[in-house]
Write a structure and sequence with these properties.
With about 210 residues, the protein is α+β, with helices and mostly antiparallel strands. The chain contains 6 helices and 5 strands, in the order αααββαββαβα. Helix content is about 60%, strand content about 15%. A 3-stranded antiparallel β-sheet has the order 4-3-5. It starts with a helix and ends in a 10-residue tail after the last helix.
C-alpha cells in the first residue's frame, strides 16, 4: 500500500519536502498513540494486580477470623464439658428450708446449714451457697469457683487448672493451697483431709470428647 507521502506526491498536492514532513508527523502521532496505549495498558495491569492483592489480603483476613472463631468455639465447648463433667453439687435454698423444717425438733448443728460464701467477680461481690466442708476446701484451694452461663459452679482444683489453661477468666476463685494451713486433731479433720486429698489428686482425663 503506498505511503501517505507517495500518495500526496502522486496527486501533486505537495512537494517532496512537505510530503516527508507529513509522513514524519504521521509516524510521530502513531508513536504517541502506541505509547499512550501502552501507558493505559500498564495502568490497567497495575490496577488489576493491586485489586488481586487486596482481594487476597481480604480473603486471608477472613480465613484468619474464621479460624479464630472456630478455635474460640472449640475452647468454649471444652470449658463447658470440663465444668459439667466435674462440677461438685452444692446445697440449695430449697434443701436448706426443707432440712430446717425437718430438723426443727432435732437440734441440727449450724455447720449442716448452707453457708453464703462471698467472693469478688469483676468489681461486684457475689455469693453462692456452700456447706461447711466446701467453704473450708475453697479457703484451702482444694476446690474452685468457676463461671458458666452467668452462673457459678464448684469444681476440683485440677479441673480449674485445666480450665484456666484455656481461659483464665472463667476461674473466679482458686486459692493458693500453700497460703492456708491445715487444722490438726479430731476425726472430723481426718475426714476433711481425706476429702482434700481426693480433690487435690483428682485426675482430669486428657481424652475428653469435643
Amino acid at each position: 500500500m503506498p505511503s501517505l507521502q507517495d500518495q500526496l506526491l502522486k496527486a501533486g498536492m505537495v512537494d517532496a519536502k512537505k510530503a516527508k514532513l507529513v509522513e514524519k508527523e504521521k509516524r510521530r502521532q502513531a508513536k504517541q498513540v502506541r505509547r499512550g496505549q501502552a501507558e493505559v495498558d500498564t495502568k490497567i495491569e497495575d490496577a488489576t494486580a493491586q485489586a488481586k492483592a487486596a482481594k487476597l489480603d481480604k480473603d486471608r483476613e477472613a480465613n484468619r477470623q474464621q479460624q479464630a472463631q472456630a478455635e474460640e468455639k472449640a475452647i468454649a465447648a471444652q470449658i463447658k464439658q470440663l465444668i459439667e463433667s466435674h462440677k461438685i453439687p452444692r446445697p440449695s435454698l430449697a434443701n436448706s428450708h426443707a432440712n430446717s423444717h425437718a430438723n426443727s425438733h432435732a437440734n441440727s448443728h449450724a455447720k449442716d446449714e448452707p453457708i453464703g460464701y462471698q467472693f469478688v467477680h469483676g468489681k461486684k461481690i457475689k455469693k453462692i451457697l456452700v456447706d461447711a466442708k466446701q467453704q473450708r476446701q475453697l479457703e484451702r484451694g482444694v476446690i474452685a469457683i468457676v463461671t458458666l452461663n452467668n452462673s457459678y459452679e464448684l469444681v476440683p482444683a485440677p479441673a480449674a487448672a485445666k480450665i484456666a489453661q484455656r481461659n483464665s477468666d472463667i476461674v473466679i476463685v482458686l486459692n493458693d493451697p500453700s497460703a492456708a494451713g491445715k487444722d490438726s486433731g479430731g476425726a472430723e479433720d481426718k475426714d476433711n483431709d481425706s476429702d482434700d486429698d481426693y480433690y487435690a489428686n483428682f485426675k482430669v482425663p486428657d481424652d475428653l470428647m469435643w
